[in-house]
Amino acid sequence: MKKKGIARILATIVIIGSMNTSFTYALENKHTGESSYAKIGKQKEELNVIKTGTTTMRLNVRKGGSTSYISLGKIEKGTKVEIVEVATTGWYKIKYQDDYGYISHKYVKIDKDTDRVYQNPSQYFQIQDNISFEGQGNYILKKGSMGLKVRKVQQKLGMSKTYKAIVGPVTISKIKAFQKKNGLKQTGEVDYKTWKKMGLSDDDWNNLGAYVSPIQVDENSTKKDCIETMISRAYDYLGTEYIVGASGKPGQGVDCSGLVMQALYAAGINPSPVNVIRHSQPGYEYESRNLFNSKKFKKISYKNRKRGDLIFYSNSNGVIIHIAIYLGNDKVIESWPNKVVVWPIKNSHRSRIAGVRRVFN
Question: How much is the pTM?
Answer without folding.
Answer: 0.73
